[in-house]
Structures are given as C-alpha cells and as structure tokens.
Amino acid sequence: MEQLDCVVIGAGVVGLAVARALAQAGREVLILEAEGAFGTHTSARNSEVIHAGLSYAPGSLKARLCRRGRDLLYAYAAERGIGHRRIGKLIVAVTDDEVAGLHKYQQLAAANDVHDLALLDGAGVRALEPEVNAVAGLHSPSTGIVDSHGLMLAYLGDAERAGATLVPHSPVTGGAAMGQGVALEVGGAQPMQVRARTVVNAAGLWAHEVARSIAGMPPALVPPIHYAIGHYYTLAGRSPFQRLVYPVAREAAMRVHVTLDLGGQCKFGPDIDWRDAVDYRFDERSAERFYAGIRRFWPALPDGALQPGYTGIRPRLAGPESLHNAGTDFIIQGPREHGVAGLVNLFGIESPGLTSSLAIGEHVAALLA
C-alpha cells in the first residue's frame, strides 16, 4: 500500500482550490478524480456568478466564506488574467407586496458586512434595465461573473507548480480509518490502495457516498443529500439586459434568474426540481414555467425565444420541504466532529461554492495546519 501525505478526492472548483492551498502550504498532494477531466459536474453546470454574499444567514459558513471568497476571487482573477466582469445584479420587486423582501435582503446584507446595496424605485430600475418591469429594486454592484473553466485551469496550474498531481479516472470506492490516516481503495483501469495522512473529501455530488464508504466514519454524521436539478434556457438573439436580474424570492410564482456569460449570451435559470440520482436529462416541459416566470418582470419576452440550454445538479442538504434552502449551510467536517484522524468532509457545497472556493481552500488548509 502506497504511503502518501495528502489526498484530495474530487477535482471540481472546490477540490482544486483546496489542493492548491494545501500544496502551496508545503503538503504533497494527490488529487483523485473519478471522471476523465476536472470540473465536469457542478463546477461546469452553473451560472458562473460571483456572489456578493448578501442573502445568507449571518455568521454561517456560506456568509463568511462567500464574502471572503468574493474578494479573493476578484483579486485572483485580475492578477491571473482570468475572464471576469463585475457587472452587478438587480433584485427586483414586481409587485408592491414584494418590496418588503427587498428590505429583508438589505438587512441580511448589512448583517453580513455588505454595505454597497442601493434601493431603487421603479424609475431607478428602468434607468439601469429599461426592459425590466418592477416597482422597486435593489442594486448589488459587487456581483459579477467569471470564466469557471479558466478559473479551474488556474487553480490546477498553481497546485501542479507547487508539486500536486491530478490523477483522472480514479474513483474512490472505499476506505478505512487507520489511526493516523485513512486507507483508500481506488478503482479505475488500474485499481490501487493508498494510505494518506490527510484526506479531503471534496467529491461534491458523491461526497456523502465517499464518506459512507470509509470504515470508521460514523454513519450518523453523514447528512442526507438531495439532488436538486436546475434547467437553464438561453435567449435567442441579443440580450436586452446588461446585468443579472433576480426577482424577489417567493413561494407563489416561479423565480427565474437572468444571468449573462462573458460573451454576452443571456441565460435564464436555474429552476429547481428533484431527481433520485445524478441525471442531467433536460425536461423541455419546463419551458412553460420559464415563460410565465420571466414574463412577470419582462413582459416583452417573445414566443419561441427560449432555447433549451443545459442542466446542473446541486448537492442540497435540504429537500423539497425547504424550497429556498433556508437554514442550510456548508458542512466542513473535520476530526474534531467525526473522530477520524486526518479526514475532512465537505458536504452540501452548492452555491456560493464557486465564489467561496479560494476561501474554502484557506479554511481547510487552516483546519489541517
């Protein structure tokens, strides 16, 4: 059995950020990835938004790591020449009864030390986004977009320059706590056994399966996972929007986000539905819901303008009973919580995981220092 210093399981944006942080701290890092390339699941199937950190529970890991990660990410992307734009976001109230929701966002943002929001009336919203129908809005200038693939390439490059190695086609199929480390069974074309002093389980949609497969890891401390699928539609033709547009969260109507990519392509989504397994099939029956949701704030959306784009799946720790994921947080679980020396589990790393990635890397490296 090969003896290693540190293994990171999963080469998504968070696993790569963790591997980078550990390698730059002087650790010898092996990155095991089940797929043939890095970042093929949640990291590649999202909105590529840099979140400002204004809507998470104050004091939560999501709030703290998003705010820290946002600042680190903007600085890193600028330094490394990674495509990004601080384009801003409008949260809009379509009806008078939704305006109270804007004030709640303001209060949450202030509690999370985000103080650059501007409350707008309907005319102020139209001055920024003439096509948007709203009675009021909240402008977040710190929200942006980033090239997620370019970001992951940069993280991997940093990690490799610091001595880390990525091994694709290497699914972790089991393991066992070994006193001062963890033994892992690795599948693929050339199955092997390795033992590492430190193992970081950043397997995303499969993190709970990996954790359950490690003998000695208390099963009761592995949270249930819910596969929340989101559809994205693209807009045919030129985008009428210059910014991201998010309606106020509400239960009574579908909430459809406007997102833009660095090429200016307008996308709508994600919605939220539930699957029993990782299944990326696109359900085009969702189009009717999208048209209705978008026309609440953009009545001029033409018939036939939406084209099926792609789907993404979020590893949610709350299911359909908690539609807006209220009350759930990232779980970063170390030996103090579960008692397995050298093991760190990352559970429920959905949005704002990309924004938080550098801060999560910092956090895990500090946990293991």
Structure explained in plain terms:
The protein has helices at residues 13-24, 61-80, 99-111, 122-128, 148-161, 207-212, 287-297, 335-338, 353-368; strands at 2-9, 29-32, 49-50, 84-85, 89-93, 118-121, 136-140, 144-146, 165-167, 172-177, 182-186, 192-201, 214-215, 226-235, 244-247, 258-260, 266-268, 273-275, 306-316, 331-333, 343-347. By secondary structure, it is an alpha/beta fold. It has 2 domains: 2-47 and 149-223 and 327-368, FAD/NAD(P)-binding domain; 89-141 and 226-316, 2-Layer Sandwich (D-Amino Acid Oxidase, Chain A, domain 2). The strands form 4 sheets. Strands 1, 2, 9, 10, 11, 12, 13, 20 and 21 form a 9-stranded mixed sheet that branches. The chain is elongated, with a radius of gyration of 21 Å. The mean pLDDT is 95.
Outline the secondary-structure elements.
Blueprint: E1 2-9, H1 13-24, E2 29-32, E3 49-50, H2 61-80, E4 84-85, E5 89-93, H3 99-111, E6 118-121, H4 122-128, E7 136-140, E8 144-146, H5 148-161, E9 165-167, E10 172-177, E11 182-186, E12 192-201, H6 207-212, E13 214-215, E14 226-235, E15 244-247, E16 258-260, E17 266-268, E18 273-275, H7 287-297, E19 306-316, E20 331-333, H8 335-338, E21 343-347, H9 353-368
Helix pairs in contact: 1-5, 1-9, 2-9
Q: Termini, distance in Å?
A: 25 Å
What is the N-to-C order of secondary-structure elements (H for helix, E for strand)? EHEEHEEHEHEEHEEEEHEEEEEEHEEHEH
Task: Specify the helix fraction band.
Answer: 25-40%
Q: Quickly give the structural class.
A: alpha/beta
